[in-house]
Amino acid sequence: MPADFVQAAALTVGASFVVWNIYHRYEPAGFLSAGFLLFAIPGFIAHQVQPLFSSLTRAYLTIFTIYWGVILLFTTAYRLSPFHPLAKYPGPTACKVSKIWMSVIAAKGYTHRYVCDLHTQYGDVVRIGPNELSFRHEDLINPILANKELRKGPYYDIRTQDGVSPLDGLKDYAEHAARRRLWNRGTSVASAKTYTDHLRHVIDEFMQALAQRQDQTIDISKWMSFAALDFMGHMTESFDMIKIGRDHNGLIHAVDEICYQCHVVSQTPWIFAFLKYIPGAASGIKTARRAGQEVADKRMKRGSNSRDLYHYLLDEDGFEKIKPSKDVALVEGILSIIAGADTTATAIVNAVYFLLKNPEVKKRLQAEIDDALSAQDSPDYTKFVELPFLNACVNETLRLLPPGLTGFQRQVDPKSGGKMLGEYFVPAGTNVSAHLYTIQRDPRYFQPLPLTFWPDRWLEQDVYTLPSGEKIGKDQVVLSRNAFYPFSTGQQSCAGKTVAHLELRSILIALLHRFEILPAKGYRVDSYEENLMDVYVTLRGPLQVQLQSRLE
Ligand code: HEM
């Protein structure tokens, strides 16, 4: 036992140095190791040195303060030191010290703008975490996202619950490929065609519901969530939100909450190991799991009466040797709601937002749509998805405000010797991403007016007219399609791109054909973009509009 206070302090510092080393080398995660290394050891020391203190409480307070303080000091000093493998990469001190800083930014909802500003300040590569780099260069998109040597990073760890992960959390390529087969069958061009009946039905209901609310102020963002969830619902299990005109069992709220909580916690996934034991913490994650459970249960009990998405996810055609389990169906059901409904609703609402801000563009798009539909008495809105100016408007929306605003994190194999990404050597175990929001606004890839909604850049022309009326030649226009990847790229890119294209174009055509959409009186349209939150997908606030029929 230490004879005096100095010996006790030296013992505590020595123990914390050993434990810092263990964390530094082996990164043990989980409840048991943390309990032992962070609580049991200092608790044991405090117990041993208790006679040196006036009370047991004082002994515990002093030893724990020294023990944790020294671990924090070593950690901070090492991460800021020239010995850290990422020392040569620039970035803010707070990011270099701890990922907790990014959790704070994530909690405020502006990670997209923060990382974009960091790139403006520091250049094409920024250290955004002690062990993480963000890149802003089109040449690094494929090496990061379409590279089998890099797996998904720890950001995706908390998607795995009770040992089961949805498709987008699977890190093992073979396992991912097997599960992705189910999704690919369910979202192929052929399957997408079979969903058009559902889509037509949803669009009809949606247009009727909006027609009943003409000349009132409505939140088109909320209504678009109803429509997108009803469509995904038809592909899985019906929600009927358009009919009831409100959220079904708090599902929208639960989806928003799960995205928000997951995004904040995913910055430091080790925290989740503790949060799940705290009652009330991570409630959104639990609520959405319950909602997914309900959908999966109902659909599995009902069985198949049409080839909906679940038909493929449950492999009801029996293509697979091993049938997907009920747990897999459950997690994929939740994924279909978050990945399928929320993203598409955001893309449509973002498009409406840009059109409200650019009435001339809206007029031109409506003219294109009217022209295409002129010969139809009762148009089938799902049939006209290949209109050039519509495509240009959709691309420009997905460029400036992609529904997933972030970079999609990958990790350099911790067991490798590191990896060259372009001209940059990236040490083993480093997390990397190519920041989507930033790259899609980069003037090197989109010129002129990289920050302006200017759909014309997507149309091949000899002479281009800028929004100001000025004419420029095609040699003055830069458009890099490589730097446009709102659906990501590579093996783990969006599985629902075909369905998304069909849905978002059909709904936009119907909306713009049937209604004049105007900002609600007294509503400041810019507030919509200002209030958007980056929670990996986009968390939207209201977009208040008034609709007037265009069909009389
Ligand atoms: C405009 C609409 C959409 C956009 C912009 C979009 C974008 C994306 C992106 C960027 C990813 C990759 C995320 C990552 O690596 O972390 C992704 C993955 C995924 N998306 Fe979409 N998505 C959209 C609509 C849809 C729809 C309608 C569905 C379903 C019908 C869907 C299903 C999926 C699935 C299952 C994944 C995971 C793929 C995998 O890990 O292999 N998405 N999406």
Automatic annotation (TrEMBL):
Keywords: Iron, Membrane, Metal-binding, Monooxygenase, Oxidoreductase, Transmembrane, Transmembrane helix
Short name of any one Pfam family annotated for the protein: p450
Residue ranges crossing the lipid bilayer per the database entry: 5-23, 29-47, 59-78, 333-356
Entry annotated with the keyword Iron: yes
Cofactor dependency: heme
Pathway assigned to this chain's UniProt record: Secondary metabolite biosynthesis
Family: Belongs to the cytochrome P450 family.
The name this protein goes by in its record: Cytochrome P450
Origin species: Somion occarium
